Amino acid sequence: MNISVCVKRVPDTETRIRVGADGASIDPSGVKFVVSPYDEIAVEAALRLKEGQGTGEVVTVSLGDEVGQDILRTTLAMGADRAVLLKGEVTSDGLATAKALAAELEGHDAPLVLLGVKAADDDQQQVGPMLATLLGRPCATAVSSFEVVGDRVRCRREVEGGSEVVEVPLPAVLTITKGAYEPRYASLKGIMAAKKKPLEVKDAVVSPSRIRVEGLALPPERSAGRIVGEGPEAARELVRILREEANAL
Amino acid sequence: MTNVLAVVEQRDGALRGTAREVVAAAAALASGLGGHAHALVLGGEGVASVAQGLGAVGAEVVKVASHEALAGYNPDGFSAITARVVRDGGYGVVLFAASGQGKDLAPRVAAGLDVPLASDITGLEATDGRVIMTRPVYSGKAFARLTVEASPVVASIRPNVFPVGDASGAGTLESVEVTEDPGAWPTQVVSFEATGSDVPDVAEASVVVAGGRGMKDPEQWGLLEDLRAALGDDAGLGASRAVVDAGWRPHGEQVGQTGKTVAPKLYFAIGISGAIQHLAGMRTAGTIVAVNKDPDAPIFKVADYGIVGDLFEVLPRLTEEVRAIRGDG
C-alpha cells in the first residue's frame, strides 16, 4: 500500500530557544533542526507497514523553506522511497498548513496518510485532524499501533484513562504517537542511497495566516526557590509551607 | 454582541474536571466582550442531568445533545454536531478544553468551520472587543501572544490554568436535536480498556507526583504511588523521559517536550534532574517541589521548594506528613 507521511522540520528538543530580533519568532542561529520526533515515529510506522506488505511506496512530504530538504533526506535515509518539499511559509495557522498539504496529497495515490500526533515546536496537535477533514477522510489521532485489516485500519489509541481500539475505513489519516514504532537509525547504506532518491521541490499554495503572533516572550523566569532542608527531617517543614504559605495542599 | 460557546466534556454521565474551567473561561470572556456564555454538552440519554451544574459557573444557556450514539466519544458525530451548533448559534468565540478529547475534536470543528484554531492556550482576554490569547510555544520555552483574524475565534484552553469562580445563574437548558445519521459516521469505537484505576491523567491532574531516574528501579514506584494517594483523588502520576524510554513507565505519563505539557497547581519532581525538555513541560505549574540528592540539579532552579536528600528516605516521610496534615485538615 502506498503511504504518504507528513513531516515537519523543528528545532531539536534539547535546544535552548532565543527570541529573534523581530520579537515574534525564534533566532535560528546555532539551532540544530531535526525531523519532529513524532513525525519520525510516523515514518517508521509507514516503513514497517510497507515492509510487512512487501509492496507499496512511502512518500514523505514537508512544508517549509528550501533548507527543509535536509530532514527529507533523513527520511529517505531511513527508507522512504521519495520526498516532496512544498516551498511555503509555516505559521501558527495549522489550517493554512493543512490546506497546503491537502492540495499536494489529493494528487497522491495513497490510501493512508500518517503524521506525528504533534509537532515538537508549536505543539498544537491540529494539522492531522484538520487535514483529514479537508480530505473528507476519517482520522484516528494519538495512535500507538495499528494494523490494516482488509479495507479498514484497526488502531489502538492512547486516551485519558485507558486505551481504545477504533476502526476507520480506508482511505484514512492517522496521527501517530509513541508506542510500537521506535524509529530506526539510518544506516550508512541508507544514507548513501538517500542521495540518489528523488526529492522534488515545488512551490506550495499557502493561504495567509489568520493567526497573528503579536509577540513572543520568554516565560517569566521562575526565581530559584528555597531549599527547605536536607534529608527526611525536612519533610514536615515542607508540608507545613505547602499548606500555610503556598496554599497548595 | 459576541456570544461565547463552551464545549464541555462528560464521561459516563459525569462532567470531566475541565468542564467547569471551560465554562468559567467562557463566562469571563463573554463579560469582557459584552456577550453571553453558553455551554454545549454531548452525551448519551439522560446527559441533561449533568448539565445543570454548569449554570453555577456562568453558562446562561446549556445546550444538550443527547442520543444513544453519543454515549461514547465519536469524532465524526461530535464534530458534525458541534460545528452545526456553532453555525446555527452564530457564536463569535468557541472554547474547548485542551484535553485528550478536546485535542481530537477542536481541530475537526475548526476545519469544518474553515477557521484556524489556537491550541492549548494559557491566557485569554478581551481588549477593545478583540480576543487576545497567550499560548506556550516550544513547550513553554517561550510564550506567544496572538489574535485570530476569523470568526468564530476557536481555541482550546489548557487544563488547570483558568480559575473557576462562582456565578449565581442557574442556566437554562435547551435541547439540541440530533439530525445526523450515526450510521454514516465512519469511525467505529471497537473497545475501551480502562487502565483500571481512577487516577486522573497527568495532563488533567491538579497535583502531579513525577518520578525520574533517581527512583533507580521501576519496582520503587510504589513509593510515589503512596504519596500520590495521600494527596487525594485529584493527584496523578508523571514520569521523566528517561524512565519512559527505559520502559519503566507508560508514555502516557511522560511530562516534557516529547510528552505532555502540564500545569497542575502542585508538582512534585522526585529524582528528576531537570533536563530542558522536562522543564518545558512543567514550568507553568503553580508550585513546584523538588526532591533530589544532588543540590546542583537544574530542577532546583525552577522549584519553589526543595529538599536535598536520599529520596528513599525523604519520600516515605513526606507521604506520612501529607497524610497527617490532610487527615486533620
- Counted by DSSP, the helix tally of chain A is 6
Which structural class is indicated by helix and strand composition of chain B? alpha/beta
**Shape type of chain B:** globular
What fraction of the residues of chain A are assigned to beta strands by DSSP?
A: 25-35%
What is the share of helical residues of chain A?
25-40%
Descriptors:
heterodimer; A: 249 residues; alpha/beta; Rossmann fold; nine-stranded mixed beta sheet; 6 helices; 13 strands; 26% helix; 31% strand; B: 329 residues; seven-stranded parallel beta sheet; five-stranded parallel beta sheet; 29% helix; 29% strand; globular
Report what the structure shows.
- The complex is a heterodimer of chains A (249) and B (329).
- Chain A has 249 residues and is α/β, with parallel strands linked by helices.
- Chain A has helices spanning 37-53, 69-78, 94-105, 127-135, 188-194, 235-244, and strands at residues 3-6, 9-11, 33-35, 58-64, 82-87, 112-116, 139-149, 152-159, 162-169, 172-176, 199-203, 211-217, 226-230.
- Chain A has one domain (3-203): HUPs (Rossmann fold, 3-Layer(aba) Sandwich).
- Chain A contains six helices and 13 strands.
- In chain A, strands 9-8-7-10-6-1-4-5-11 form a nine-stranded mixed beta sheet, sandwiched between helices. In chain A, strands 2-3 form a two-stranded antiparallel ribbon.
- Chain B has 329 residues and is α/β, with parallel strands linked by helices.
- Chain B has two domains: 4-184, 3-Layer(aba) Sandwich (Rossmann fold), CATH 3.40.50.620; 207-328, 3-Layer(aba) Sandwich (Rossmann fold).
- At the A-B interface, helix 3, helix 4, strand 7, strand 8 and strand 9 of A face helix 3, helix 4, strand 7, strand 9 and strand 10 of B.
